[in-house]
Amino acid sequence: MHRDNRPASSAVVPGPTRTPSGAGRKTRGTPAITAPLRWEVLSGLSEEERTAVLQLTRVRRYKSKDVLFHEGDEGESLHFVVSGRIAIRSVTPAGDLATFALLGPGQALGEMALLRRSSRRTASATALEPVETRYLHRRDFLRLCDKRPAFERVMVHVLALRVDRLSQHLMDALYRSTDERIVRRLIEAVRLCPDVRNGVVVRLTQQDIASLAGTTRPTTNLVLNALQAEGIVTLTRGKIVVEDLLKLAARAGS
Question: Which of 24, 138, 150, 208 is most buried when burial is the number of CB atoms within 10 A of its CB?
């Protein structure tokens, strides 16, 4: 097992092309969602309350590689992910760009915008494929909270989810081998795919996986090449094809 515990800052990923923040195409109105999604941040609300929140949103669509928002932009909105996958990236103290989270349908991003009336984005969000979100502006949500204080439960749940994610990644960093962390981050990426099966394509580079696992690209390359030699994955430029999900899961540790 590799025990390389160097921080994610040692992994370099190409920076996103600078585009205007929130450059996705807007769609007026609130069309019905084709698939019944249960967003994590709204799970503490009743069906009626969830509907009230979603009625305040607007649909935005992004092409692959579009940037939803940039690190340092003013944070004024929350995005509910309807379809597609999004990479969350941040500049490290060394000046590198590291990928530290992946998000997909049923999840939300930019949630800190609901918690503070004035804040800056602490990371950039980039579409890995065509993405559709529902965009909720802070002023609309705060207006709703003024009318019905029960909606402030959303903010409490946002904080709880963030703490849970940070705790899980801290436990992985402290007590799991580098090999296991790499496999677990790859499995997390697979779970965000709309069709989870053998042959599923994960559109991430080895540098992305290295950043997510908190290790270096050379170490990640060694681990992934070993998995490829066993027929568990196939490595191609800019993506990883998972050929055997059961064998991959067996490498993730208990």
Answer: 208
Quick one: angle between helices 138-147 and 47-54, nearest 10? Answer: 140
pLDDT one-digit tens code per residue, 242-253 = 999 999 999 987
Structure confidence by residue, pLDDT tens digits, 63-91 = 999 999 999 888 888 899 999 999 999 88
How far apart, in Å, are the Cα atoms of 217 and each of 111, 133, 173, 204? Answer: 30, 31, 16, 13
Of 52, 38, 77, 41, the C-alpha closest to 155 is 41
Q: Hey, how many other C-beta atoms are within 10 angstroms of the C-beta on 51?
A: 12
Q: What is the pTM of this model?
A: 0.76
Local confidence band at 172 (pLDDT 50, 70, 90 cut-offs): confident
